[in-house]
Amino acid sequence: MTDTMIGVIGGSGLYEIDGLEGASWIEVESPWGDPSDSILTGRLDGVPMAFLPRHGRGHVHSPSTVPYCANIDALKRIGVTDVISVSACGSFREDMAPGDFVIVDQFIDRTFAREKSFFGTGLVAHVSLAHPTCERLSAACEASARDAGITVHRGGTYLCMEGPQFSSVAESKLYRDVWNCDVIGMTNMPEAKLAREAELCYASVAMITDYDSWHPEHGAVDINEIIRTLSGNADKGRELVQRLPALLGKDRAPCPHGCDRALEFAIMTAPEKRDVDLVARLDAVAGRVL
Ligand SMILES: CSC[C@H]1O[C@H](OP(=O)(O)O)[C@H](O)[C@@H]1O
Ligand SMILES: Nc1ncnc2[nH]cnc12
Question: Model pTM?
Fold first, then answer.
């Protein structure tokens, strides 16, 4: 058993959470640059929790410029074991309506302008991403959502686009009709990939704000409509987060799906060929296996 520490990454509309005992915003230095913002730390039901607003308070970072590596490194560095990503998204399905939550379990990564790995020349590693989210953590998120009275769908494929513009109708129909995606957003990649490389359990709670642009009766994505739905969604997201510590508990058994051991056999580079500077930067992310 180890100690649980829950890390919540709040998306658009969710820039802080309340109810943390001993709450304080701390600045965390990372060799991967500055995280999106300071990190709000404290305890909920006796369980340590950290909250990081993905876009920064005041919504400073665009989906392409969110410092994903620094964010995941900083959370790992302060002891986070389980990351809950909370995000706004559009829906490709009539039965997944604005206001509903989806516990995402698969991704299609269409981003192209972001740093996607902690590893590279001088230290090569290949982790599995067949199942990019953690089943145990996802189950806890689903239970918390149901308990909070939220309409929640378990499982769904999230198309991650580069943005910041929303999709054209042709793109939206491709993602929906050909690729069978369920929801669309701009931020869960490379976040989920980096969490896996950092051996963190990762669950994605996608809060639907709109029907993207495929829907014949809803037309173009309208940012005003999104913003109206966002604040109600953010309140529900906070309710979900409040219930998580009681479900996850203080003591943490090893992840039954191996998220916390993802690097066990992943590193390819021979010890004598490793880049010492990169190895040093990976102290928090991969120190366990280096
Ligand atoms: C406000 S609509 C577009 C914006 O919302 C989502 O952000 P996040 O995933 O951080 O909640 C989407 O990915 C875009 O960044
Ligand atoms: N339709 C949409 N496309 C991409 N990101 C979104 N975030 C919220 N709605 C979205």
Answer: 0.98
Output the CA 91–ligand 2 centroid distance in Å: 8
What is the fold, at CATH topology level, of the domain defined by 2-289?
Rossmann fold (3.40.50)
- Residue ranges of the domains in the chain? 2-289
CA-proximal residue: ligand 1, atom 6 (nearest): 88
Q: Which segments are annotated as binding site?
A: 12, 54-55, 87-88, 186-187, 210-212
Per-residue pLDDT of the chain (290 residues; tens, 9 = 90+): 899 999 999 999 999 999 999 999 999 999 999 999 999 999 999 999 999 999 999 999 999 999 999 999 999 999 999 999 999 999 999 999 999 999 999 999 999 999 999 999 999 999 999 999 999 999 999 999 999 999 999 999 999 999 999 999 999 999 999 999 999 999 999 999 999 999 999 999 999 999 999 998 888 888 988 999 999 999 999 999 999 999 999 999 999 999 999 999 999 999 999 999 999 999 999 999 99
> Is the C-beta atom of 141 inside 6 A of ligand 2?
no
- Return phi, psi of residue 235, to 5°: -60, -45
CA 111 to chain centroid, in Å, comes to 15
Q: How many CA atoms lie within 13 A of 111 on its CB side?
A: 27
Q: Using the 8-state DSSP alphabet, how is residue 94 labeled?
A: T
